[in-house]
Amino acid sequence: LPGSLQATRALMVAAILLGLVAVFVAVTGMKCMKCMEDDQVKKMRMAVFGGVIFITAGLAALVATSWYGNRVARAFYDPFTPVNTRFEFGSALFIGWAAASLAILGGAFLCCSCPRRETSYPPSRGYPKNAPSTGKDYV
After folding, report:
1. How many CB atoms lie within 10 A of CB 71?
2. Of 22, 110, 28, which Cα lies nearest the Cα of 60?
3. 64/31 Cα distance (integer angstroms)
4. Which of 29, 70, 128, 138 has a CA-to-CA distance to 20 between 20 and 30 Å?
5. Digit-coded pLDDT (tens) for 87-100
6. What pLDDT is stored for residue 122 in this prediction?
7. d(CA 2, CA 94)
């Protein structure tokens, strides 16, 4: 196989493996999971780290799919390529572009859940302490 085809295959395998790792890391950082629930900041950082891995996986898939699409387009318009061996864009390229876009978008959404450096909560108001009733409070 040509080197460019081997490189696109390696990029797609890397994107798939990175996507699996990103799923496990991001699931660990979800609020609904019991793992690491004692430290919410670390939990949110795990979700953000999963988002970064998703973006990396999406970029790897996007590069691989676009590289192969460029190769197909150049071979299609090459006048020296025989007509019976010309490839066209197939559904796999469109699925690859859509998957890469969704992985990048999902990773960006996860990265937007980044914890703030300082959380400012309104001052807590304590409940008024009840004095023991003397019986004269009621009319």
Report:
1. 15
2. 22
3. 33
4. 70
5. 888 999 999 999 99
6. 57
7. 22
CA end-to-end span of the chain: 95
Q: Is the pTM of this model over 0.85?
A: no
Residue pair 92/135 in contact by the 8 Å Cβ criterion: no
Cα separation values, 120 from 27, 66, 117, Å: 27, 45, 10
Rounded Cα distance, 69 and 46, in Å? 34
Phi first, then psi, for residue 88 (nearest 5°) are -120, 165
How far apart (Å, rounded) are the C-alpha atoms in residues 67 and 55?
Answer: 18
3-33+41-81+92-113 folds as Butyryl-CoA Dehydrogenase, subunit A; domain 3 (1.20.140)
